[in-house]
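User: Before I run my own analysis I want an independent prediction to cross-check against. Here's the chain; please return only the structure tokens and, at the end, one sentence I can use as a sanity check.
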Amino acid sequence: DDGCLNDAVCRGHYEQAVKQFESGRYELALGSFQAAHRRRQMPWLLLNIGRTLQRLGPAQEAIGYYERYKKAELNIDAATL
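Assistant: Structure tokens:
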């Protein structure tokens, strides 16, 4: 079970972010991915935030999110879900 996709609020932010990302509205997508992550701290959301930041240009910030993803994915536990 996925903690974000099973939470209506988190899922709404995520689905909105995907639409915004796919239409090239990266600033809006970033905010929506971050809102989803604030709601449910799923590691894969960090990956999406990193990808969005990469499109916006701040490479160092994107790398930071990729590194957080790697660390969180290795340490994921039931409480995170």
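Sanity check: The mean pLDDT is 89.
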